[in-house]
Design a protein that fits this description.
Largest sheet: 10 strands, mixed
Number of helices: 18
Number of domains: 3
CATH class of the largest domain: Alpha Beta
CATH topology of the largest domain: TIM Barrel
Oligomer: single chain
Length: about 675
């Protein structure tokens, strides 16, 4: 693992924070508190941070505001600027029109909303297609408000929603010209950049300039990508109207990368609704993935979204029948009538396994991805606690907001909403299949844009289902229980091993198998931990094999050698009050685990999965607050979790034996 020798982010921070004093110094004056050291001396005084100084920071990488076409039609009025302020813990005033539309509750004026705990970083990822166009309907006298499609959208017509949606998918219709003109008038990208710039607080809160590229090759099929930049200025978005092919997005990214220090990455999200396309054996054109395609994908897409409000994308019981925790927040059909999404090719664990197979076949693993989590919330309020979730598209501040009776019944699937059919023939999904928001954790030296982006790029990331579980994973060849007794064990782990997102170092001479240090700590205000597991995928013939190991169990439990399973941790949830007790589980779990089935010649990968004790699900909390019966079609509790990015093992390539002299011409 290489350690950066230069720190442009910190140098820029020192310069920007001292710009007024530097101006005075250059004019021959001194500040009131004494002589100002030369800029070089100030920069040299900055501490030199190392990987051992990395801390866990939590953030949002998937959020929509009124600038997104669909969010506006849902009633959203929160702006990108307000979204960032809410994310960093400030109180924002949510317009009454949004509260009344979303929650069916009276509001005489704006309603205050504040996050229960501040995020460390956030990216507003509004849909790039016709960015800000529909929000022009809130501008008095705008040309768009006078257009036919604008009038239809403002009246709330669902038919207009889908006609405009066709324009976003690149279909030319009567709405296209009006939408394009409205987007130009809105200057949506300028609005997004201004909000990103205004809300950056180096050391306290990091904003990441971003957008969502919204490719949908079929009704309800998601091939979307969140495009994240390392700077707060970037070229106008590449949209799915330009092209809905991921390879064309990658070409655009390559064309701008490196200009004025610009870097960019794309994050595929919501793969569970990709209908088998996200981790297909073939490329977009139906041809087998080759080395060039695999390399392009691995460069541009180092991460994948593990969970969000439309369900978790790790795996399913059908794909992982021996995994007792596989049936977690599975949303099993796309927005296309009764059609179920194809399981094969849609879930991350299988994608990782297929990546091992493709890597061995073509020389590059296209699916060598770290993990992130997001919300995909569409009302601008990024909140991930279970008591803030009320539907697939919005979150609330539960201290100031609540669902009205009919909205609560709809959220719990009690009004037939799951059977409604859209004007284009799509059947609505059962709202109970939706999940609460997920978040991303990164290990970074400091809370600055360069440090956070670097962590994303090197995949030193983890995803959680919304809680602040903090998980670390290191892999190496000589770790033991004694390794954890050293005060500087983290520094030693970086020096002699690989962190999550990395590759195991070259196999040490006498080492029989790799060992892994894994540590997890509970959310400071959340539930205790049930267990830590290691999920291993290894190449096996023409496919791969998966194994789940319980490596750390709370309460002194042991794995039963007859079944290979541990007994459940227990359950303290009171379904009448929606509360639980931390009288079971553990606040922290730490262990060193060695792979008992290691094969030196076989490529493999390992990731950690941390599971909490049972707590009330969002649907249970909505039912309790609304004095409604608990829905029978959804579990009353859930075990929230975190996933570390994998660590990969690649055997040392064997030297080919020459049977004849090498050609020289």
């Amino acid at each position: 693992m290489s350690i950066p020798t230069s720190r442009p982010g910190r140098a820029a921070l020192v310069l920007s924070a001292s710009i007024g004093a530097i101006a005075a110094w250059s004019a021959g004056t001194s500040p009131a508190d004494g002589p100002l050291p030369a800029p070089r001396a100030a920069a040299e005084a900055a501490p030199v941070l190392t990987p051992a100084d990395r801390k866990a920071y939590f953030g949002e990488l998937h959020l929509h505001t009124t600038m997104s076409f669909d969010a506006w039609t849902f009633g959203t009025k929160v702006t990108p600027d307000q979204a960032y302020k809410f994310a960093r813990g400030e109180t924002v005033m949510v317009p009454a029109a949004q509260v009344v539309r979303e929650q069916e509750t009276p509001a005489d004026g704006p309603v205050p909303a504040k996050r229960a705990w501040p995020l460390d970083f956030a990216a507003v990822t509004d849909h790039s297609e016709y960015l800000g166009a529909v929000a022009q309907l809130d501008v008095p006298g705008s040309a768009f408000s006078q257009s036919e499609i604008g009038k239809s959208l403002k009246s709330g017509g669902r038919g207009a929603f889908f006609r405009a949606g066709e324009a976003i998918r690149g279909v030319k219709n009567e709405s296209t010209e009006a939408m394009a003109a409205a987007a130009k008038a809105a200057d949506g990208w300028g609005v997004e950049m201004a909000a990103t710039q205004a809300n950056y607080r180096p050391g306290k809160f990091t904003t990441l300039l971003a957008y969502e590229w919204t490719s949908s090759p079929g009704r309800g099929i998601h091939m979307h990508r969140n495009v994240i930049f390392n700077r707060d200025v970037a070229p106008p978005p590449f949209t799915s109207v330009d092209s809905n092919r991921p390879v064309d997005l990658w070409k655009f990214m390559a064309s701008i990368r490196g200009k004025d220090g610009l870097d960019v990455l794309a994050i595929p999200h919501n793969s569970n609704l990709s209908d088998g396309r996200e981790f297909d054996w073939n490329d977009w054109d139906g041809k087998p993935i080759d080395a060039a395609y695999a390399l392009a994908q691995s460069i541009n897409e180092p991460l994948v979204e593990m969970a969000q409000t439309k369900g978790a994308s790790e795996t399913t019981p059908e794909l992982s029948p021996s995994d007792e925790f596989a049936n977690f927040e599975v949303m099993d059909r796309i927005y296309a009538g009764e059609t179920g999404s194809k399981l094969h090719g849609s879930y991350v664990r299988e994608g990782l396994g297929r990546g091992l197979v493709l890597g061995a076949k073509v020389g590059t693993n296209p699916f060598k991805m770290g993990f992130v989590g997001g919300s995909d919330i569409h009302n601008g309020l990024s909140a991930s606690d279970e008591n803030t979730a009320v539907s697939s598209s919005q979150a609330i501040d539960p201290t100031t907001m609540s669902l009205g009776p009919e909205r609560a019944r709809a959220a719990l699937g009690m009004t037939g909403q799951g059977q409604q059919v859209r004007p284009n023939g799509q059947q609505e999904n059962n709202p109970l299949q939706m999940s609460s928001a997920a978040i991303t954790g990164v290990w970074a030296e400091e809370n600055t844009r360069p440090a956070i982006f670097a962590a994303l790029k090197r995949k030193e990331t983890f995803a959680t289902t919304g809680t602040r579980i903090r998980v670390r994973l290191f892999g190496g060849w000589g770790f033991s229980a004694a390794s954890l007794r050293a005060r500087d064990w983290v520094a030693n782990a970086y020096a002699h091993g690989a962190p999550m997102g990395g590759d195991l170092p070259a196999r040490a001479g006498a080492a029989r198998a790799p060992s892994f240090i894994v540590q997890a700590a509970k959310d400071p205000t959340g539930a205790n931990l049930d267990r830590i597991q290691i999920v291993k995928l290894a190449l096996a013939g023409d496919g791969y094999k998966e194994t789940v190991f319980d490596v750390a169990l709370s309460g002194g439990r042991m794995v039963d050698p007859r079944t290979g399973k541990a007994r459940p941790v227990g359950d303290t949830v009171d379904l009448a009050s929606g509360t639980y007790k931390n009288t079971i589980g553990a606040p922290m779990l730490t262990t060193v685990w060695t792979d008992p089935a290691f094969e030196p010649a076989t490529p493999a990968l390992y990731y950690a999965r941390v599971i909490e004790i049972p707590t009330p699900r969002w649907s249970t909390l909505v039912a309790i607050r609304a004095h409604l019966p608990l829905p029978k079609a959804a579990p009353a509790t859930l075990q929230e979790r975190a996933w570390s990015s994998p660590i990969w093992y690649s055997p040392k390539p064997k030297l080919a034996l020459r049977t004849r002299p090498a050609r020289t011409g």
